[in-house]
Amino acid sequence: MRRPLVAGNWKMNGSRTESAALLDGIRKGISAASRAEVAVCPPYILIPLAAEKLAGSPAVWGGQNLSVHKSGAYTGEISGPMLRDYGCTYVIVGHSERRTLYGETDAMVAEKYGAAQAAGLIPILCVGETLQEREANQTEAVVARQLEAVLDQHGIGSFKNAVIAYEPVWAIGTGKTATPQQAQEVHRFIRSRLTARDKTVAENTRILYGGSMKGSNAKELLAQPDIDGGLIGGASLQAEEFLTICRAAD
Ligand code: PEP
Q1: Does any ligand 1 atom lie closer than 6 A to the CB of residue 210?
Q2: Which H helix or E strand runs over 207?
């Protein structure tokens, strides 16, 4: 049985005060008995606050990105060991905003995935097609290319300690959600690519859906057989909305 995971990607949002209230709200609302695992990925600077507010709760926290290097003269970067040092469990790699706005290639994403695991973090590997690629019937080819870049470099065994997030770029922050059927089709496809390498790993790997998931559409998406949770952007910035999704994942 795959344990569902609901992870909030706060992106570049939140003052210290707002974030403290959000973290308090999440802590208060999650139940230790919940089947779903809950994670928040705040901006780097707010990770110590998340660590302080969530310590001893069932929720865990993570980063949104990491350097491929462990330490050294890399101004502005944060490494995997630094995230680990602040108690991070997860780190998002290859988010579409990193790929498009910061030019991260499949090879760079694969390198970050390896750096995360080397530091003892669980990478949440994001894959997904743009609207143009979907309309050109390229969805499977794009997702396969993004996935194979990591599989070829790190092997199927590495997925014992990784999570995949299918995030159609056209659904991120747009309010336009993939239908449960559209999402399920791609999730099934991703799992089939893993199955081709190792059936057991494929059955145990969690594949999250991301793209305008919110309280009102979470249940239907999460009911799909190959959707094992969500990577949540906008809706993770309000405790009640985020908690509604977490409960739907239960
Ligand atoms: C995301 O950025 O990972 C995301 C899914 O954003 P949103 O939920 O706002 O579409």
Answers
A1: yes
A2: strand 206-210
